[in-house]
Amino acid sequence: MxxxxxxxxxxxxxxxxxxxLQRISMGWGGxxxxxxxxxxxxxxxxxxxxxxxxxxxxxxxxxxxxxxTFATTxxxxxxxxxxxxxxxxxxxxxLNNRLSLDPAVRDRFMADLxxxxxxxxxxxxxxxxxxxxxxxxxxxxxxxAAQDPDGLTALSLLRAIPTEELTIRGGVLMAxxxxxxxxxxxxxxxxxxxxxxxxxxVRRMSRDVDPAAEGPQRVRHWSLNLRDRARDRTIPADLYWxxxxxxxxxxxSHGYAADRRFLAYMGKHLASHGIAVIAVEHPGSNVEALSDxxxxxxxxxxxxxxxxxxxxxxxxxxxxxxxxxRLRGRLNLDQVTLVGHSLxxxxxxxxxxxxxxxxALADYCTTLSPxxxxxxxxxxxxxxxxxxxxxxxxxxxxxxxRLVLMNPLVGEFFGDTGLSHVQVPTxxxxxxxxxxxxxxxxxxxxxxxxxxxxxLIVVVGGTHLSVGDPSNIxxxxxxxxxxxxxPAEETERLRQYxxxxxxxFAMQETPQAARYRPFLSAxxxxxxxxxxxxxxxREQLPQNIAxxxxxxxxxxxxLAEPWPLVASLLHLELIDMQHQLVALQRNAIARLPFxxxxxxxxxxxxxxxxxAAAIALx
Length: 618
Description:
Elements: H1 9-28, H2 33-39, E1 50-55, E2 58-63, H3 64-73, H4 89-96, H5 103-115, H6 117-129, H7 135-146, H8 154-160, E3 165-169, H9 170-197, E4 220-228, E5 233-241, E6 248-253, H10 264-272, E7 277-280, H11 302-323, E8 332-341, H12 343-351, H13 358-367, H14 375-381, E9 400-406, E10 426-431, H15 439-449, E11 453-459, H16 488-506, H17 513-516, H18 522-527, E12 535-538, H19 543-558, H20 563-590, H21 597-604, H22 607-617
Parallel strand pairs: 1-3, 6-7, 6-8, 8-9, 9-10, 10-11
Antiparallel strand pairs: 1-2, 4-5, 5-7, 11-12
């Protein structure tokens, strides 16, 4: 299998653009406008020869030659002496960071930037920061800089800006980077809080079967190319099966810019236990689709075609199941467990009955701040232009009996009530370091809205692609700063766990359900947990996290930016402080020769009182 099938271009066009801003905003925190302007890397806010930074009535002039000297040598020019403490190696690295874009992807991204509402928001932001750079000049500058032999860097952008002196509004830039830093800090704090809140004591399991071990059956593999003439669409699919099937069929739906081999390890594993697997490839949103002549990154109709792809494949495989002498009715296609990753998660939800709310999505994308944009937002806001059918149930397929959603793209597709129509049992997986589909908006809130959610699995330290087959992920992709992937050896136990969990979940549709039910538990997840990649499993969100989500939703309604983000972060920090106080309590008790009832009371006190006590002590 060629490793190049899942190439570096998959997410680099989005992820590196945001990384230039996000990495540095955390390190600098918007300290001064000069540092922010330099650290923003790819932002075309620096003039070809001079940059004039305005902070109210104060102006500071920076020579581009001095910036180039610092970027090249790391030495602080004499005229930068007053800013020396801000000119860190991280800032120097950001100036030299290369953004490698495939020409076809770059052109489509630029077209999307100029033609879409979400792109217009980004351009409007830069217009506020640097009013002398109108959108057409900005786009031309990026195009010109991308032709530089050294690649698209901050320095190539400096050389491409067609004006000798550019004035930048430092206050606007500082406010943007400060809000950007708050968003990242919120995610980092949430990760710490979830790690503690999701943990629970368990007992070691006893078993008479090991669903994570390779099964005894010989795996058969068919590669299919199924032609849907009605839609003028050819859908590739891989069928993994054995001669002695034991359960319902499992369907694998990949995410944006991947292919049917993204979860190949799971397909082979399940088939070795007798569970037939169909890995579907969606031709409008696979890796090859990035290099076609489409004017946009993601064709809007793909949100409709993906569910139809799976229904069509199920129909054709059902026919094969009846007419093929080798299959001979071995496949149970009436009770399908769909495993969807990223955009495949959206696909599964729609097929299970989730109701799209176009107006809620449009409202969200209209008011979305550029500092909160993640690749998931860019993709979901492309759906605002979809011509949704009047009967959304036409996308539903009653053969979908169970869902496993891994890092799903959910966001605002379904509004506040659309997920209530999903009645099938659903497992949700989220990763704390996922910068593509951030867990708060894409997984935690949707998990609370699903009426039949069975459990939430948290991969602490995991990223967007940690669940994928390492043999189908280009090694270069793991080096992108915005979405650094963990080495394959560090995520091996995670994949073993997913094999066992998905198999046990699918087997709940069989007479052997009780035998496999113990593997749907925190105890089983913790058996595969490692110090580098801890796993957490809970059937419901912890109360502290559920309260935080509800409060955040209210604040978003009543407060203007950035105060909801500030309040949300403060709430999470207070919960984190509670955890630290409890840990301090336990350490103190362990050193005492007698017990103190007061400590036991504090251990069970609400987080509000613990936080208040901590603030009083400070």
